[in-house]
Amino acid sequence: MTKAYSRFLTALFCLFLGGILVWSLVLPDRERSEVENRTLSQWPAFSWQSLKDGSFTSSVEEYFADQFPLRDQWTVLKARAEQLIGKSEFNDVYLCGDRLIAQVKDPEEDLDEKNLSYVQRLAENTDVPVYLGLIPSAAEIWKDDLPAGAPSWDQSAFLQQAEALGLPMVDFDSALRAHADEDIFYRTDHHWTSLGAYYGYAAVMEALGKGEDTLPMSAFTPETASTDFNGTLYSQSGIHWLTPDTIEFWVQDEGLSITSWRTGEPQSGTLYDRSYLEKKDKYSAFLGGNQPLCVIRNEAAAGKGKLLLIRDSYSDSLAPFLAQSFEEVHLIDTRYYRMPPAQYAAENGIDEICVLFSIPNFITEKSLVFIGQ
C-alpha cells in the first residue's frame, strides 16, 4: 500500500466521520424512538461539576449514540451482519427460528430470595389466603429451542425454592408446558398471548379451588385486534424482519365496570384501550397499560368473591378472564401503589390475594419490599 493511497483512505475516513458529525448536528433531535419504544437522550446541561465527575462526557456519549443518523437502520444492518456470521444472540435476545426469546440473567444481590421473603411476610400479616403465582418465561418453557449452550437462569430450580415456602402455588409451569406446542407467547415480545393468558386463568382458578367454575375456551370469541404488533424483543434485539405478531381480545367488556387510579383519583377505565393499537406499545391496550391500581367489577358475578392481584404486566391480559369468574378483581402495581396489601385487603373485603409475576420480573423487581409491610 503506497503512502498516497494510505493518505487517501485516511482522508476518506475523516471525511466520513466529519460528515456524520455534521449530519447529526444539523438534524433535529428526536425525543423518542418508536422502534425501540423508549425516550432518547437529549443534549445534557453543562456544569463544571458534571465535567469533573465524568457524568457530562458520559451523557454526551449517550446523546450521540441515541441521536446517530439513521440509528434504526444501522441497528437492523448490524443484526443482519451478525446473523450472517452465525450469531444467534442479539443484545440478550436469542433468535430461535421465527421467534425471539429473552435471556434470563441471574438476579442481583439475592433479590430473588428477598422477594420470596416479602411474600412470606405478607402471608403472615393477613388472615386472607395468599397464593403465589410465578410464570415461567419462554426461555424456560421453550428451553429446547434455545441455541446450544445458551445461558439462561434456571427458573425450574427457583420454582422449587418458592414451593419450599409452603404457600399455595399457582401451577403456571404445568399449565404452560402442557400447551408448549401452541402460540402461548408472542414471537416478538416477552408477554404471553391471550391464549397463554387463558391457560393461566385456568391455572389460577384451579389453585383457588374454583376449577369447576372455569369458563371453557368455547365461551370466548377471539377478536383480532391487531396483526402488526412488534414487541419489546423486536425493539431490544434489532431483529426487525420477523412477521409481526397478532393481538387478540377474547373477553367482551359488556357488564363490566373498570375503575383506574392513574392520577391518584378514581377514573373510569376500560378493558381494552384501543388507542394503543395505533402505537408501538400495543400490548398496553390491555387495561391501558401500567397503573397504580385498577378495579374490575362484574355485577353478573355477584357473590363470587373479591380477588386481589399483586401483579406485573402479565396480569393485564389475564385479568379480563378472571373478571368473568369474580365479583371484583383488584390489581395493584407495587411500583406505583404504596398501601400495604394486607391493609388494602382488610379495607376492601378481599377474599383471596395472589402475588402474580413472571419469573424474570419477580427476581428483578425491587418494589416488592412494600408488600411485606
Identify the overall geometry.
Answer: globular
Number of structural domains: 2
Q: Could you give the count of β-strands? A: 14
User: Termini separation (Å)?
Assistant: 72 Å
Helix content: 25-40%
Radius of gyration: 24 Å
Please give the largest β-sheet: 8 strands, mixed
- Tally of individual helices: 13
Point out poorly predicted stretches.
none
Mean of pLDDT: 87
Classify the beta-strand content into a percent band.
15-25%
Describe this structure in words.
The longest helix has 24 residues, at 3-26. With 373 residues, this protein is an alpha/beta fold. The chain folds into 2 domains: 1-68, no CATH class; 99-372, no CATH class. It has helices at 3-26, 48-53, 55-66, 71-84, 111-125, 138-141, 155-163, 172-177, 194-207, 232-237, 314-322, 341-347, 359-362, and strands at 32-33, 38-39, 93-96, 99-102, 130-135, 169-170, 223-229, 245-249, 256-260, 267-268, 293-298, 306-311, 328-332, 352-358. The protein is globular, with a radius of gyration of 24 Å.
